[in-house]
Amino acid sequence: MLNNKIILMTDATHFLGTPGTKALLAEGATVYAQDASFEAEAARQAFEAALPGAVALAEQEPAEVVSAVVEAAGRIDVLINNDAYPAVRAPIDEADVDEFRKTLDALMVRGFAYAHAVAPGMKQAGRGKIIFVSSAAPKHGLPNYSMYVAARGGTNALAVSLSRELGRFGIQVNALAPNFVESPTYFPDDLLANPDAMKKITGQIPLGRLGKPEEAGDYLVFLASDKSDFITGQVLYFAGGWA
């Protein structure tokens, strides 16, 4: 399904990075992966050993990452902004404004910078896909998590706006908006092992369970494939009916 596709995955060891990369590779894609940990050669080697076929990049700044992929592969067909950052619990009267700025930078500004960097090449090619992995949380809001939810909501709006701007160049832009997906980034092992906590969490989900990482990976495969060529400007919820 993804043969000959050149895909860039950001924050590759977090959120949907690993299951997404695994699913994309299984469908024949060439995946270049960025992660903060990849500044260390050992981390790059470990990632490539765990996911044969993936290419871990040492570069960190969005423009440098994009340039490295284009130099190696000639183009980028799909950008997956898999941005991850802790959802810090903070009532508004206790929230740290500097922490809010860090959240916005991690979840909005970085994705904007990556889109800025890939857009010229995609415009020239007359096609491309930009996928923001965000969150379903802005659909209903989460009390005491306004910093995280606001950043994710901004990303969802960015995807919709960019789709209007880039559609005439053959570029699709969408947001995959998960919630309640098994991921160490947001559901650490000690939480998954707590039956009382899990009962409370899954009680909010109409399907009564957490989503599987592999299911989210399959969704990314669809959005990265030619089968999604007529889908753009969508915030696509993946939350078991919660959103």
UniProtKB/TrEMBL annotation:
KW Nucleotide-binding (keyword) present: no
PANTHER family (alphabetical): 3-OXOACYL-[ACYL-CARRIER-PROTEIN] REDUCTASE, SHORT-CHAIN DEHYDROGENASES/REDUCTASES FAMILY MEMBER
Annotated protein name in UniProt: 3-oxoacyl-ACP reductase
Keywords: Oxidoreductase
Organism superkingdom: Bacteria
Pfam families to which the protein is assigned, alphabetical: adh_short_C2
Family the UniProt entry places it in: Belongs to the short-chain dehydrogenases/reductases (SDR) family.
